[in-house]
Amino acid sequence: MVAAFEVDRRGRGPDLRTGGANLNARTPHAASAAAPDSDPVGRGRIPDTAAPDSDPVGRGRIPDTAAPDSDPVGRGRIPDTAAPDTDPVGRGHIPDAAAPDSDPVGRGRIPDTAAPDSDPAGRGHIPDAQAGEPSPETANRFYAGYSPERINPGDKAHGVTTIVKVTSGSTPEAADFVDALYASIVTAGTFKAKNIRTAEAAKVIENTQRDVNIALVNELAMLFKKMGLDTTSVLEAAATKWNFLPFKPGLVGGHCIGVDPYYLTHKAQQIGFHPQMILAGRRTNDGMGHFTAGELIKLMAKKSCYHAGARVLVLGLTFKENCPDLRNTRVVDVIEALKGYNLAVDVHDPWANPQEAREEYGLELTTEPEAQTYDAAILCVAHKEFQAGTIRPWLKDKHVLYDLKSTLPPGEADARL
Length: 417
Description:
Layout: H1 2-9, H2 31-34, E1 113-117, H3 136-140, E2 142-146, E3 165-169, H4 172-183, E4 190-192, H5 196-227, H6 231-238, H7 260-270, H8 277-286, H9 288-302, E5 311-315, H10 331-340, E6 344-348, H11 354-361, E7 374-379, H12 388-391, E8 395-403, E9 415-416
Parallel strand pairs: 1-2, 3-4, 5-6, 5-7, 7-8, 8-9
Antiparallel strand pairs: 2-3
Helix pairs in contact: 5-7, 5-8, 9-10
């Protein structure tokens, strides 16, 4: 979507027009603010099927302002698909976003059409004639391109145009076309992968590598806790070596890092390979919510402020700091574990959308925590609003403040991961 806006913003001429549709009415239509003049759907609305004559998108079709009735894609049109990826890995950690009904382009594809795909939910499901997966219709009539998403939510310094874009295509011609399209807007440059499968593999290992590295420091944090060592102090000392990788312990959520490894392990198991390290890292990271909740309970017991019904304030719900994204947040693991200890849990997050928190996780956010109310607080997300001076007034005189993110100054919290 962002790439489409960049094409539109840079004015590629009358032959390259852009349009878009957001079929999820609950998704914030941030695009409206970014490109108000190029939004054919409207702020926060889905296409208006009641007004077919004025609807450039039509009933669930790919945008086509030239021929809305006879050709949903159109010759020379480039549908840039991005399917929802809020929960692309279902129960059992098996990818479930490749259902036939999720095909954003649909059957009856039009000849001579290129469809760049930046959707992380589509991995492993894009035809690739270059990789020996052609069909007569796919290889000769419909051309697909794939460019994996590289975006860091909340990071204004690294956007679509300032990060090298990996591109690929189902044929050499499609690959050239897609690469040229992205090269016209990405100032950091592009990298044309050998084929779609190579580009897909590159995407999943980018996030798998990070997931495994975080799992390592999470395991070290658990070890150092038993050894009576402060993990942050150990990591700071080790970081003085020039090639030490500066990963920090914590929860691993979001729609990429906590999900992509399962695409890789699922594929591996399909072909008879049983990965060890990748799944070990996933088990470690998936268990951090319960581990940190247990650590908080131990501290509360030592301070004699743990009892059935004790009130705990969870600070932060989004999957990362200073960002409203709630997708696959693992803070919910902490909340569920605390409730399992018969604690009364309130959640406060000034960045999260209360309606989304309610609909996705069944949680009612506390807008204004009351002073002198809580027996404990656990800092799960390092939003800029959360400082020790602002947190302590919400706590009773006898309390525990646990810094899961290790972001408060030393000594400001009673304990940290």
